[in-house]
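Journal club prep — side note

Before the paper discussion, L.F. wants everyone to see what a predicted structure for a comparable chain looks like in C-alpha cell form. Sequence:
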Amino acid sequence: MTEAPIALQALRLVKRVEGAITHTLVDGIDLTVRKREFLAITGPSGSGKSSLLYLLGLLDAPTEGEVIICGQETSKLSESERADVRLTKCGFVFQFHFLLPEFTALENVLLPLRTAGAVSRGEMNERATALLKSLGLSEQMKKRPNQLSGGQRQRVALARALANRPEIIIADEPTGNLDAASTEQVFGLLREIADGGQTVIVVTHDAGLAVRADRRIHIVDGKIFETTFGEKRERKGEEGSATGNEEGEILSAESAREPMPGPQPHGQGSAAE
C-alpha cells in the first residue's frame, strides 16, 4: 500500500530557554507525521512533550531546526506568515476549553469562521450548526459554557477547532479535566476525525488512551525515548471520502475539497511539559 502524504515534519528540532541556567526543552527531535495518522505523544511531567506540540503547531518558535507543515517550511516565516499557516492548516484543542463565557455554543464555534471570513454568513451558520449536530450537541447550541457539562464544553471546543476544516488537529491533554465517560467520548471523536481524513496529534498522560493511537512517541528529557505502534485499523472509506452530517457522525475536512482556513490560536509561548 502506498504511504499517505506527509502532513507535518520536524527536522532536528531544538527549543532552549536561556537564563542563568539554560534549559533544553526539546533536544534534536526528528519526526514525520502523515495524513490520516493519529499520533499520541506521551512522557512524564517536564519531559518536553507539550513544548514539542507547541513547536509543531507554530505556537512557539524553535531555537534550531525546521517545522514543515503541508510541504511549507516555516522557520523563516514572519510572525504574520506563521499566523496564516496556523489559521489555514491547524485546529487546536487544549485541556481547558477556552470558550468565551458570554457566547453560546453556536457563537463560539462561529468565531474562527468569522475570523477567516472565507465563506458567507449563511454558510458559516450552516457549517457551525452541522458540526455541533455531528458531535451530539443539537440541544446545546443556544446554551452558554456555564450551562454545559465538562464533556459538552470540550466537544464545543472540538467543533470550534474543526470549523475551518484544518488539515491537522493539535490537542494538548484534551481529556485532562474530564471524567471517564467524557474522556472516552472525546478520545473516540478524535479517533473518528483521523479515520475521516485529518491528521491528529495529541499529548496525553493517559497510557490507556495513547495505545489506541496509530503511533505513540514517548518523550524523556526532550528526546524521543521510545516509539510504539497501535493495532492497524480499517479506515472509513478510501482517500477523499467524506463522513456524513447525521447526529453523532463527524464532518471531516474531506467533506469539502476546496482548501479552507483553520481557527487561529491565541497567544504564543512554550510549555515545560
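L.F.'s comment for the group: Residues 101 and 146 are 7 Å apart (CA to CA). Keep this in mind when we get to the figures.
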